[in-house]
Amino acid sequence: IGARYYEAAATFMEIRTKLVDGRLRIQLDAIHPDRRFIPFCVEESITGICCVTSSFLIEPIKPLAIELTYPKPAYYQRYNDYFDCPICYERPNNVFWTRPITDAPLPTSDKISAATCLKLVEQLVERHLGEDDLIHALRQRLLRQSGRMPDMEEVACEFAMTSRTLRRKLLQRATSFSEIRD
């Protein structure tokens, strides 16, 4: 469920999962272009996955190995102490390897609560997946901005239209530039 619906949460990482040789491969691709933020985004994602799953799985997710795109940080010993697994730096992708998640029942499961939560998260994901190409492109453009947030004039120019045309197209979709930016 987490792998399927992670889009419902705000994140600076695109997460892709697949089974490879009996292990779960979780790839973390940075959305933000500024490489200085990648260590923070990866650390937040991996520790978040580990912490959140420990609160509801019988066997929480623990890393078997971690591959990182960035050089070994000055505080690398904290990685070793916290994750307690092999960690490789300066690799092509940020990858978190773990055991596959079993289909064992959750200790705190409740069918009514689960159905309600699934319905809510599906609505959140559908809202983003149902966006047309313009809104999706605008969101991606704003997320990829390093430093100062661009104004509507700049973005409209990049989309080869006037700000008036962009405003009109967004109004047709019942939204605005400021609403998407916010």
What does this structure look like?
- This protein is an alpha+beta fold.
- Helices cover 46% and strands 15% of the residues.
- It contains eight helices and five strands.
- The model has no long low-confidence stretch (mean pLDDT 82).
Distance between the termini: 28 Å
Q: Figure out the total of helices.
A: 8
Q: Main sheet: which strands, in order across?
A: 1-2-5-3-4
Could you spell the SSE succession in H and E letters? HEEHEHEEHHHHH
List keywords for this structure.
182 residues, alpha+beta, single chain
List the helices and strands and how they pair.
Layout: H1 2-5, E1 13-20, E2 23-30, H2 38-56, E3 63-67, H3 76-83, E4 87-88, E5 94-98, H4 111-129, H5 133-143, H6 152-158, H7 163-172, H8 177-181
Parallel strand pairs: 3-4
Antiparallel strand pairs: 1-2, 2-5, 3-5
Helix pairs in contact: 6-7
Please outline what is shown here.
The protein is α+β, with helices and mostly antiparallel strands and 182 residues long. The chain has helices at residues 2-5, 38-56, 76-83, 111-129, 133-143, 152-158, 163-172, 177-181; strands at residues 13-20, 23-30, 63-67, 87-88, 94-98. Helix content is 46%, strand content 15%.
